[in-house]
Amino acid sequence: MIGNRTALAAAALLAAGIAVAGWAAGREVAQVRLADRFVTVKGSAEREVKANLALWPLRYVATGDDLSAVQAKTAADEKAVLAFLERHGLGADAVVSRSIDLVDLLAQAYRQGPADQRYILTRTLMIRSPDVDRVDRASQTLAELLDQGVTLGGEPGMGSGPNYLFTRLNDVKTEMIAEATAKAREAAAQFATDSGATLGGIRRANQGLFQILARDEAPGIMESRQIDKIVRVVSTLDWELVD
């Protein structure tokens, strides 16, 4: 009898131990699940900004069979272009580089058919100015150069217009991140309320990439050709949910 009682007592203690261990393990699982309760939300911020730098590759082209005559023509064209820029308030200090490209069609190994003009000489003046409005006004009056016999050229499909850049992203970055975070918190708080929970702290945050977009989106119009732009950031945040 004593042996049976001892065995029963040991079995009871073992069962109790297993029960306690199971309760403890279950409690840990519950805590882990509670810790994993979170909601992922996105918050965005936008700012309308104005470009603060203009880069204008102004290209002009001369063609002919006499290389000396072609060179003389481009030299005369350059004087006309520089005078044009000066009239529009873009002096010599705005011209940051010059380049020249000469194509001899008769020297091309895979040329097919006759060449109407043997030489194609292209010169490029790179204009750089923070006065984007002045550059824009000048670019609208290129007909003045055409009237003087200057043949303007450009990259295929690109034309010869200015590119407008916004380089002051750091001036708006901090404020925009704060706004995006605030909007994300507002969305997370609403979710917590709807689910009967309380919003905790930030579990994880991804700032996201800043995008500079054209203010007026239209087919064939690139962001770099517009002075007015939109800066956008979308942040992704995980917020803890607490019972």
UniProtKB/TrEMBL annotation:
Protein name: SIMPL domain-containing protein
Record's keyword annotation contains Signal: yes
Signal peptide bounds: 1-21
InterPro entries xref list: 26kDa_periplasmic_antigen, SIMPL/DUF541, UCP029033
The species this protein was found in: Azospirillum isscasi
PANTHER family tied to this protein: SLR1258 PROTEIN (PTHR34387:SF2)
Keywords: Signal
Domain of life: Bacteria
